[in-house]
Design a protein that fits this description.
It catalyses: ATP + H2O = ADP + phosphate + H(+); Couples ATP hydrolysis with the unwinding of duplex DNA by translocating in the 3'-5' direction. One of its GO terms (cellular component) is cytosol. Residues 10-277 form the UvrD-like helicase ATP-binding domain. It is a single chain. This protein has helices at 14-20, 37-51, 66-79, 92-103, 118-129, 132-147, 158-169, 177-188, 190-199, 213-223, 253-256, 258-261, 278-288, 318-333, 369-378, 397-404, 416-434, 440-459, 464-473, 524-538, 553-556, 582-595, and strands spanning 27-31, 59-63, 88-91, 114-115, 172-173, 202-205, 234-238, 266-270, 272-273, 300-301, 310-315, 359-363, 383-386, 487-491, 500-505, 541-550, 576-578. By secondary structure, the chain is an alpha/beta fold. Strand 15 (500-505), helix 20 and strand 16 form a beta-alpha-beta unit. Mean pLDDT is 84; it is low at 340-350 and 584-596. The strands form four sheets. The protein has a seven-stranded parallel sheet with strand order 13-14-12-15-16-11-17, sandwiched between helices. A six-stranded parallel sheet has the order 3-2-6-7-1-8. Helix 5 packs across helix 6 (132-147). It is built from 22 helices and 17 strands. It folds into four domains: 8-92 and 182-270, P-loop containing nucleotide triphosphate hydrolases (Rossmann fold), CATH 3.40.50.300; 96-178, no CATH class; 278-389 and 479-592, Rossmann fold (3-Layer(aba) Sandwich), CATH 3.40.50; 391-473, no CATH class. It is globular, with a radius of gyration of 25 Å. Bound molecules: adenosine-5'-triphosphate (ATP) and magnesium ion. Magnesium ion is lined by residues 37-38, 497.
Length: 596
């Protein structure tokens, strides 16, 4: 970090510093994983506000998740403690909500409008469409239209119109409208758009490869001059090969056409990877190459020219695979790699010992976590799971929130978070009483839901409406704590942007990765995205990476065939090696010792 006399850019290498120093043109930073994109953009903002005289209030940084936003804020506070508090760091949805709060009357909303959770959306859609099934269809239709990048100014089909009108009657917007309403507002009122352009003179967007059509329109309104000319103030950062949200409407095309959208834009490539060992980085590049969107990318690993090759493992079922992960972690915790078991060779003697928080187990679908959790529990290894669903959609949460509306506040309405916490607990009890035949599982779900909601309730100062808003904005369930002394269980999607010394990617089987549901066609573009997902997963690893799969189709669920993932065929012996299960061998050695 900067010395008292140095620049904030001192924390960057020459390539990164050059990128961060470009302040007179639109800027596209395109670079592979671990090259310091996030680090560079954060330092660039700190540079602007501490060394270029840019008022911090003029700076807007946009990320995709709350966690990424929080992390960026914290890093900024470290780099520019006096200014960072005034920089706006938002997710796309919180940016939209911010604009709507300020302009609520313009779109027929009250000043304290709420954001509909999934259960409310479904209830409203059902009311409009007649029954539950048609209600679900209506919501699907709406989200399909959104994914297709529909023009929010085009008239909606009748059902959708009535659905939106009903939301409005209740002073609610849904999650997608948080972006679409501001887009319409700004596109149809250039004077208003001008106000926001003046406010946010400097805009940075991390993970730009995952922008969707509506988010792009919103950015365009904020970043283009009233004449339609793009302004010199947008910085987009990303990696097309890590674009993994096509199913949600993300379109890597926006990234690829940045130069056309913003003539005069500068493009900078970063080539030094600070994260992974050579074998891991090269292996990941072997896997992505057939479908890479970044031709001639040549990433070099700055650290760890040697180190373990990627370990490939075939297990005889998912339980065995999970046991392999648990034993592998135990083994690495004990300071031994299990690549070179035959020689009993221990690597990394000089290196720092690994702790629980240094491990991540990654998987394609949430349901794969159960087997891993079971094996880790059996081995007595503490873990935490991060999923990527919205908190509001978690089992028990909707029921709990529905009940909350009927549970009166008691005592002092101004008693803040503790009052609301108490209300949540009473709501859980009431829900258990009310649900006919609520079994143990339901009860447990409701209590888990209470635990999930408590830290929120704290933040909301006891205001349930605020809690509903927070819930709808919390894109993901994020009770995951990167600092906790636990192994992390993550979906590949949730692992985006993170890094760990040791990573296990499980379920590297055809049908799971690429994921294929029975009856699915073979869509080339989806398949490419699956390859990118594996690339994202592999590039989270710093020192150790294991890719495993289980044979036996039943074990793999979904469309799993039990064959290893075709993506692994790209790996060669310079980057990877097949490894066995560490445990039986160790046992044998112990037995031998005893015999001696
Ligand atoms: P991803 O594509 O996965 O989001 P990224 O390009 O955003 O990766 P960062 O997360 O910013 O990469 O950086 C990766 C790691 O490398 C971090 O631990 C970061 O602190 C470190 N790093 C990046 N640049 C430097 C540097 N110049 N000096 C030291 N460490 C660096
Ligand atoms: Mg990043």
């Amino acid at each position: 970090e900067p010395s008292s006399t140095g620049s904030v850019l001192d924390g960057l290498d020459a390539e990164q510093r050059a990128a961060a120093g470009i302040v007179d043109a639109p800027l596209l930073i395109v670079a592979g994983p671990g090259t310091g994109k996030t680090r560079t953009v954060t330092h660039r903002i700190a540079h602007l506000v501490t060394e270029c005289g840019v008022p911090p209030g003029d700076c807007l940084a946009v990320t995709f998740t709350r966690r990424a936003a929080t992390e960026m804020t914290q890093r900024l506070l470290g780099l520019a403690p006096r200014h960072a508090g005034e920089v706006t760091v938002d997710t796309f949805h919180s940016l939209g909500a911010r604009i709507l709060r300020e302009q609520h009357a313009r779109v027929g909303l009250g000043s304290r409008f709420g954001i509909a959770d999934h259960a409310t959306q479904l209830a409203v859609a059902t009311e409009v469409a007649g029954d539950d099934r048609r209600g679900r269809d209506l919501l699907k239709q709406l989200s399909r239209a959104r994914r297709a990048g529909g023009d929010p100014q085009q008239p909606l089909p009748d059902g959708a119109q009535r659905y939106r009108a009903k939301l409005r009657e209740r002073d609610l917007v849904d999650f997608d409208e948080l972006i679409e309403l501001p887009v319409t507002l700004l596109e149809t009122d250039q004077q208003l758009a001008g106000l926001y352009r003046d406010r946010y003179r400097w805009i940075s967007v991390d993970e730009y490869q995952d922008v969707d059509a509506q988010q792009y329109r919103l950015l365009w309104q904020l970043a283009a001059e009233p004449t339609g000319e793009p302004a010199g103030n947008l910085t987009a950062i990303g990696d097309p090969d890590q674009s993994i949200y096509r199913f949600r409407g993300a379109d890597v095309g926006f990234f690829l056409r940045f130069q056309r959208d913003f003539p005069g834009a500068r493009t900078v490539h970063l080539t030094r990877n600070y994260r992974s060992s050579t074998a891991i980085l090269d292996g990941a590049q072997q896997v992505i190459t057939p479908d890479s969107l970044v031709p001639d990318r040549a990433l070099r690993a700055v650290h760890g020219s040697d180190g373990a090759r990627i370990g490939l493992h075939r297990a005889s079922g998912t339980a065995d695979e999970a046991a392999f992960v648990a034993r592998g972690i135990e083994r690495l915790l004990g300071g031994a790699s299990f690549h070179a078991l035959d020689s009993g060779h221990v690597e990394d003697e000089g290196d720092q010992a690994l702790g629980l928080s240094d491990f991540a187990v990654l998987y394609r679908t949430d349901r794969q976590a159960a087997a891993i959790a079971e094996a880790l529990t059996r081995a007595g290894l503490p873990f935490q799971k991060r999923s990527h669903d919205r908190l509001a959609d978690r089992p028990g949460v909707a029921e709990l929130l529905a009940e909350l509306r009927y549970v009166p506040a008691c005592g002092d309405p101004h008693d803040g978070g503790s009052g609301l916490a108490d209300r949540l607990r009473r709501a859980a009890r009431a829900a258990v009483d009310r649900l006919p035949g609520a079994d143990q599982a339901t009860t447990a779900e409701l209590h888990t839901a209470v635990d999930l909601l408590l830290p929120l309730a704290e933040r909301c100062d006891g205001d349930p409406e605020q809690l509903f808003t927070e819930l709808s904005l919390g894109v993901e369930v994020d009770t995951w704590d990167p600092r906790a002394d636990r192994i992390s269980l993550l979906t590949l999607h949730a692992a985006k942007g993170l890094e760990f010394p040791a990573v296990f990617v499980v379920g590297c089987a055809d049908g799971l990765l690429p994921l294929r549901w029975p009856g699915d066609g073979d869509d080339e573009e989806s398949r490419r995205e699956e390859r990118r997902l594996l690339f994202v997963g592999m590039t989270r690893a710093q020192r150790y990476l294991y890719l495993s799969h289980a044979t036996g189709s039943a074990a793999n669920g979904a469309g799993g065939s039990g064959e290893r993932s075709p993506f692994l065929a790209e790996l060669d012996a310079s980057t990877s090696e097949w490894i066995g299960d560490p445990a039986p061998r160790r046992k044998r050695r112990e037995t031998q010792l005893r015999l001696l």
